[in-house]
Design goal:
By secondary structure, the chain is mainly beta. It folds into two domains: 47 residues, no CATH class; 114 residues, Jelly Rolls. The chain is built from three helices and eleven strands, in the order H-H-H-E-E-E-E-E-E-E-E-E-E-E. The strands form three sheets. Strands 2, 4, 5, 7 and 10 form a five-stranded antiparallel sheet that branches. The chain has a four-stranded antiparallel sheet with strand order 1-11-3-9, with no helix packed on it. A hairpin with a 2-residue loop joins strand 4 and strand 5. The longest helix has 7 residues.
Length: 180
């Protein structure tokens, strides 16, 4: 039922919202809170049209991003990169790789800086990520050859080429992934 002024203290039904008698100006601040969502008072069945669903919300929180730093000493100071494996991690769950980002605090010169990520010793790229000579950020021209890894896989981080005049240093690699 339409009204003028402040909303009444009675419950507003879904039909009031659908027929347009309640608009955003009529809703009190904090009418829908995270507490109501967390305790499932807002459910798929209560959301008209399915624009937002519990499944969509659950999938949105399955990000599984991680990063790795290379070319730093024990005190966190930059040091020149060398061609080698820099470390690894053990995956606790299945993931799908979405992207990788690289940034070198000191840009390589004379040649590109090239890095690799491997699953159990095998690269995940058909075209390795590179930071072009004279640049700090990767060129975003990498191509994945595989996009999935399983719980228990060993993910290792490698530098396969450094600058020929000045080696890059302070390399940070961020992996954008999603739990599957």
């Amino acid at each position: 039922m339409p009204y003028i002024g402040q909303p009444p203290s009675t419950v507003i039904s879904g039909s009031d919202i659908i027929d347009g008698t309640v608009d955003t100006a009529d809703l009190a601040a904090n009418a829908v809170t995270t507490v109501k969502i967390a305790d499932l008072n807002v459910t798929e069945g209560k959301i008209a049209g399915g624009a937002v669903t519990l499944t969509k919300a659950a999938n949105a929180v399955k990000a599984y991003d991680f990063s790795f730093a290379m070319g730093y000493d024990a005190d966190g100071a930059e040091i020149d990169l060398v061609v080698q494996e820099y470390g690894w991690l053990l995956l606790p769950r299945d993931i799908t790789f979405e992207d990788v980002l690289g940034y070198a605090e000191t840009a390589p010169t004379g040649a590109n800086l090239i890095f690799d990520i491997r699953i159990n010793g095998t690269t995940i790229f058909s075209t390795l990520p590179e930071i072009d000579a004279g640049s700090n950020a990767d060129d975003n021209n990498h191509v994945f050859s595989t996009t999935t890894a399983s719980a228990g896989d060993r993910i290792s981080f490698h530098v396969t080429q450094i600058g020929s005049t000045v080696a890059g240093s302070g390399l940070m690699v961020a992996v954008k992934a999603r739990q599957t």
